[in-house]
Amino acid sequence: MSKITEVAELVEKGKAKLVGAAVQAALDDGCDPMQILNEGMIDTMSVVGEKFKNGEIFVPEMLVAARAMKKGVEVLKPHLATGSTGAQGKVIIATVAGDLHDIGKNLVAMMIESAGFEVLDLGVDVAAEKVIEAYRTNPDTKIICLSALLTTTMPALKDTVAALNAADFRSSVKVMVGGAPITQSFADEIGADGYSEDAASAAMLAKKLAAV
Ligand code: B1M
């Protein structure tokens, strides 16, 4: 079995205590960190999601798989994040109200940090007012990044962007959105400045938006 397949199996089974060592073994074996992340972890979460959808597993299994992935990402982080933090400016990031998914948001935060930004992570289930309050306390923020991972929290994303669009500071900050159910056309429709599909392209987009 390949080292990456081992990581994938441990993530899927939710073996949080063993994943770190398996990721380290894959790195020691010369595997590309991005490949370990994509094939060993992100693809595995899609498998977990499919199994959940088909009724083969339930919420607790999804939760332990998520915990295991987080442990693996901790070991990968120094190999993925290379930038000098803060040089590009400040970014606020949050998962919107009603949504508890944070793995994707954390990866976006990590890649954006790695691209040289200082990241203020507000966590999950964040109300629009909290995002606005965070900007007011950090008016040097260049970009506000919002994740929504459920179709049922897309309206919360829309409302948060609407609240930001109505704020007096809107012309001083860019708003980026993303998450599995989000598309470019939804981002355009709700009035965000940018959308990207994954964490790596989110970091590239952040650099582009910060330069405008
Ligand atoms: Co949930 N869940 N979940 N879940 N969960 C999904 C999302 C689901 C697709 C599973 C399925 O049915 N196939 C489904 C949503 C269906 C839908 O929306 N129609 C679902 C459901 C239904 C639910 C509950 C409602 C289940 C229930 O209680 N009955 C519940 C809701 C809780 C809530 O939020 N209120 C729930 C709960 C949970 C857990 C708590 C158990 C756990 C989350 C733990 C955690 O995050 N700490 C969980 C998990 C693990 C998943 C799956 C299996 C994996 C999510 C994940 O981490 N993916 C997921 C299935 C799936 O995704 N296929 C599923 C890996 C991650 C790297 O990808 O988050 O997409 P992702 O992030 C990507 C991109 O989207 C993008 O970049 C990231 C990295 O490449 N991106 C951005 C994200 N944010 C971005 C921001 C940007 C740009 C790009 O710019 C700002």
Summarize the helices and strands and which ones pair or pack.
Layout: H1 3-13, H2 16-28, H3 33-53, H4 59-80, E1 89-95, H5 103-114, E2 117-121, H6 128-137, E3 141-147, H7 154-165, E4 174-178, H8 184-190, E5 194-195, H9 199-211
Parallel strand pairs: 1-2, 1-3, 3-4, 4-5
Helix pairs in contact: 1-2, 1-3, 1-4, 2-4, 3-4, 4-5, 5-9, 6-7
The protein binds CO-5-methoxybenzimidazolylcobamide.
Give a short synopsis of this structure.
This protein has 212 residues and is of the alpha/beta class.
Annotation keywords:
212 residues; alpha/beta; Methyltransferase, Methionine Synthase (B12-binding Domains), Chain A, domain 1; Rossmann fold; five-stranded parallel sheet; 9 helices; globular; binds CO-5-methoxybenzimidazolylcobamide
Explain what you see.
- The structure is a single chain.
- About 55% of the residues lie in helices and about 10% in strands.
- The protein is α/β, with parallel strands linked by helices and about 210 residues long.
- The protein folds into two domains: about 5-80, Methionine synthase domain (Methyltransferase, Methionine Synthase (B12-binding Domains), Chain A, domain 1, Orthogonal Bundle); about 90-210, 3-Layer(aba) Sandwich (Rossmann fold).
- The chain has a five-stranded parallel sheet, with helices on both faces.
- Strand 3 (about 140-145), helix 7 and strand 4 form a beta-alpha-beta unit.
- The protein binds CO-5-methoxybenzimidazolylcobamide.
- CO-5-methoxybenzimidazolylcobamide binds near residues 42, 98, 179, 180 and 198.
